[in-house]
Amino acid sequence: MSSGRMARRDPPQLPADRRDAPRTRGARFFRAVGSVPGLLWRLLRRAAILALGLGILAVLAYRLFDPPTTPYMMGESRRLGGVTQDWVPMERIAPVMARSAVAAEDANFCRHWGFDLDAIRASLEDGGQRGASTISQQVVKNVYLWHGRSWGRKALEAGITPLVEAAWPKRRILEVYLNVAEFDEGVFGVEAAARHHFGVTAAELSAVQAARLAAVLPSPKTRSASESSGFVRRRAASIMDGAATIDRDGRADCFAVRKD
């Protein structure tokens, strides 16, 4: 006999794997989202290791091989329609030219490991008016980086300079510097500069000519070695004295040609 009520039916039961599917998908989603920072960190770490490895390879390569060009030279070549550079080894550069460049730009070149702390302190005390970049730092900037005063470039320069100092002999650092430095607009390297300004080779430079070339290094676009202003002549005279001094007191020993 019917009771007049419909029997209540329980809802159909889903298989266990289907009941747990939404929960499983949600867990996977949150695990994936939570792993993004870790994934990014791993990618950044691998990119940093790769960049460091490539940087070390580039430093080691240029110890043995001459840089074919530099970022700054490429930029100037595009701007000017070409530049002049003739690479020469240190054996074909007058020793007085090497001493003059060091006397003008980095008198303690043989005594520091890439950074001249005394020059940095003096620059800070002077409010940053005087430069404190060593020849090693300038080589890193010219060969591997770009010109400019950005903190990013300065940070990279500070990181690469010790690598160059550790991997290259001082003589090699100075050789590269003298071959990539700008001595006039579009004139790079001491060989091209010697021919451009004085009609001689880098090996034939006199003490006066070498000092005048060194005198234009901080500002080659506004100073001329061959059409020297009074300032350049006075600066060159000071450089000649400095070059003689570092030759006497041993501060040129790390790059001087050794005589048997």
Q: What structural category characterises the helix and strand content? A: mainly alpha
Name the poorly predicted regions: none
Number of strands: 3
Q: Could you say what the CATH topology of the largest domain is called?
A: Penicillin binding protein transpeptidase fold
Please name the fourth-level CATH homologous superfamily of the largest domain. Answer: Biosynthetic peptidoglycan transglycosylase-like
Beta-strand percent range:
under 5%
Largest sheet: 3 strands, mixed
Domain unit count: 2
What is the share of helical residues? 55-70%
Any overview of this molecule?
The protein is mainly alpha-helical and 260 residues long. Helices cover 59% and strands 3% of the residues. The chain has two domains: 26-65; 66-249, Penicillin binding protein transpeptidase fold (Orthogonal Bundle), CATH 1.10.3810. Helix 4 (95-105) runs parallel beside helix 10. The model has no long low-confidence stretch (mean pLDDT 86).
